[in-house]
């Protein structure tokens, strides 16, 4: 007989290899809270017992090498990891043992290079540092140093580590990070939490690509375990199927949530809050190509109090004449097959018709024509947004819609503070080849909660999807093929509007 649980998809297994914090704010304890809160099965390999509380670390007792090796072997035989977070490795022997194990696994690895406690207690022997740099960093998919640890990875002595209140310049951070990557690290996330500026800015690079993650600096006392929590969240997120860049954004969002809602426990720096999947747009960072862009965000006008509602995407202005009399108030012109004078004429015609019906017309991609002719708004994909003059659009008062498919793209959109976000694909679509995996209703709901503006669901939608998506937070429903390819598009549009009215009334 089949066991009842045999069809249940098991949770991903994530390990933490780190020291134990009896105060529960950092190390193994913080990692387990983070990982369990994000829905993975967390396993722990303890490298050291520490004597610490919220005021500092007073003693470190590394576990015996054979005990560390035995922990790794026991877990590997029964609970192999999808991802591993590495924290404190107290001795050079520990570094060698963990490095040997990493050669035997293809798990995703996050290394949080814990070199010293905030108050100066050394947490890794001097002779272990070079082994960490030479044997662990080249195997770790991402290494997450704070500014002081970053200086050590760049050549400074661990004994000279200080938590500087003056962060290096963005150019200096980028240059030094590039040097560390060229010396063998796969990628770095240099954390800016210890800087003294208005914003906390983290820099990621793998030597080929780079970006900055920016959040308002939170002046709170409960900051114990920030590095442990961030690295554990990144490992858990990747084990759950997120890409590295998505995992970095989710990790930062989880950390921001914990800082914002933590309790003032103890007499020193208390622990973060661990509240599971973040659900507040206030915690989402914004992603930009430069640090300066992260400090000078744009902001676009609102679309007004009326929901986006049924939001058809059409390829010709004549569709506006047919659909807007039905009571549709938001529509998009997406004439991908036109260019030059023909596109200019189509955009001008659509703008004129939309004004006549007092409708919100968004022009897809052709932002220069929209700006020239005074359109209500522009909708851009992420690649097109990088080429557009968003500042000019904002100065002119146009509304902006941006597409997003995942956590990272949501963070990119967050930098512009758009009028709305088109989020999807929710379901498979035949309109164009999908580069992104469909979110489903649950995935849509999770991302929608992090958006700080109205959100239009897009991708494979049909009227029967509307109630669930409305309950998941959709403010609008972008429709192409289901409407335009219907045998009677106007009747199909009326059906959409009836279902939407029922969903809003329920």
Task: Summarize the structure in short.
This protein is an alpha/beta fold.
CATH superfamily caption of the largest domain: Ribokinase
Shape: elongated
Q: Structural class of the helix and strand makeup?
A: alpha/beta
The first-level CATH class name of the largest domain: Alpha Beta
Mean pLDDT: 92
In DSSP terms (H or I, runs of 4 or more residues), the helix count works out at 19
Helix content: 25-40%
How many DSSP E strands?
18
Radius of gyration: 26 Å
End-to-end C-alpha gap: 44 Å
> How would you describe the oligomerization state of the chains in this entry?
single chain
At CATH level 3, the topology of the largest domain is: UDP-N-acetylmuramoyl-L-alanine:D-glutamate ligase
> Any idea how many domains?
2
Q: How much of the sequence is in beta strands?
A: 15-25%
Question: Tell me about the biggest sheet?
Answer: 8 strands, parallel, barrel
Strand order of the largest sheet: 11-12-13-14-15-16-17-18
Named CATH architecture of the largest domain? 3-Layer(aba) Sandwich
Weakly predicted, low-confidence segments: none
Folded structure, characterized:
It is a single chain. By secondary structure, this protein is of the alpha/beta class. The chain has 2 domains: 12-295, Ribokinase (UDP-N-acetylmuramoyl-L-alanine:D-glutamate ligase); 309-505, Alpha-Beta Barrel (TIM Barrel). Helix content is 38%, strand content 19%. It has helices at 27-37, 65-78, 92-102, 126-136, 147-153, 170-182, 226-239, 244-261, 291-295, 318-323, 340-356, 367-373, 382-387, 390-395, 407-416, 440-448, 466-471, 481-484, 489-505, and strands spanning 13-20, 41-53, 56-62, 83-86, 108-111, 142-143, 188-190, 199-205, 210-216, 286-288, 309-314, 330-333, 360-364, 377-380, 399-404, 420-423, 455-458, 476-479. The strands form 3 sheets. The chain has an 8-stranded parallel barrel with strand order 11-12-13-14-15-16-17-18, surrounded by 5 helices. The relative contact order is 0.08.
């Amino acid at each position: 007989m089949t066991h009842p649980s045999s069809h249940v998809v098991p949770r991903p297994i994530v390990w933490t290899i780190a020291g134990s914090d009896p105060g529960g704010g950092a190390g193994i304890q913080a990692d387990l809270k983070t990982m369990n809160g994000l829905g993975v099965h967390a396993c722990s390999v303890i490298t050291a017992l520490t004597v610490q509380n919220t005021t500092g670390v007073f003693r470190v007792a590394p576990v015996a090498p054979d005990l560390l090796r035995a922990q790794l072997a026991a877990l590997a035989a029964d609970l192999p990891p999808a991802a591993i977070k590495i924290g404190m490795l107290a001795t050079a022997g520990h570094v060698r043992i963990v490095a040997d194990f990493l050669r035997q696994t293809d798990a995703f690895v996050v290394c949080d290079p814990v070199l010293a406690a905030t108050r100066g207690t050394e947490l890794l022997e001097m002779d272990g540092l070079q082994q960490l740099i030479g044997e662990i960093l080249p195997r770790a998919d991402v290494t997450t140093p704070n500014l002081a640890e970053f200086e050590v990875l760049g050549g400074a002595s661990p004994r000279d580590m200080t938590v500087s209140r003056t962060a290096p310049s963005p150019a200096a951070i980028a240059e030094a990070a590039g040097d560390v990557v060229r010396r063998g690290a796969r990628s770095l996330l240099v954390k800016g939490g210890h800087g003294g500026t208005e914003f906390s800015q983290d820099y990621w690079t793998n030597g080929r690509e780079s970006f900055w993650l920016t959040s308002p600096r939170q002046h709170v006392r409960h900051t114990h375990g920030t590095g442990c929590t961030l690295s554990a969240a990144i490992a858990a997120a990747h084990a759950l199927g997120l890409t590295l860049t998505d995992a970095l954004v989710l990790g930062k969002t989880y950390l921001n949530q914990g800082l914002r809602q933590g309790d003032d426990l103890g007499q020193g720096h208390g622990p973060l809050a661990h509240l599971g999947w973040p659900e507040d747009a206030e915690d989402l960072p914004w992603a930009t190509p430069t640090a300066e862009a992260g400090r000078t965000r744009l902001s676009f006008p609102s679309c007004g109090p009326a929901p986006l509602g049924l939001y058809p995407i059409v390829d010709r202005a004549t569709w506006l004449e047919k659909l807007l009399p039905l009571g549709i108030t938001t529509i998009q012109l997406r004439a991908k097959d036109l260019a030059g004078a023909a596109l200019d004429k189509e955009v001008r015609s659509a703008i004129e018709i939309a004004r006549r019906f007092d409708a919100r017309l968004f022009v897809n991609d052709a932002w220069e024509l929209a700006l020239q002719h005074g359109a209500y708004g522009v909708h851009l994909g992420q690649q097109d947004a990088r080429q557009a003059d968003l500042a000019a659009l904002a100065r002119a008062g146009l509304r902006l819609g941006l597409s997003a498919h995942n956590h990272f793209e949501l963070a990119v959109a967050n930098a512009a503070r758009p009028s709305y976000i088109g989020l999807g694909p929710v379901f498979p679509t035949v309109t164009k080849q999908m580069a992104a995996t469909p979110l489903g209703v649950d995935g849509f709901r999770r991302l929608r909660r992090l958006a700080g503006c109205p959100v239009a669901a897009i991708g494979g939608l049909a009227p029967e999807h509307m109630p669930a998506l409305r309950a998941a937070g959709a403010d609008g429903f972008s429709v192409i093929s289901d409407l335009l390819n219907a045998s009677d598009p106007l009747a199909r549009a009326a059906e959409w509007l009836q279902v939407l009215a029922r969903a809003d009334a329920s």
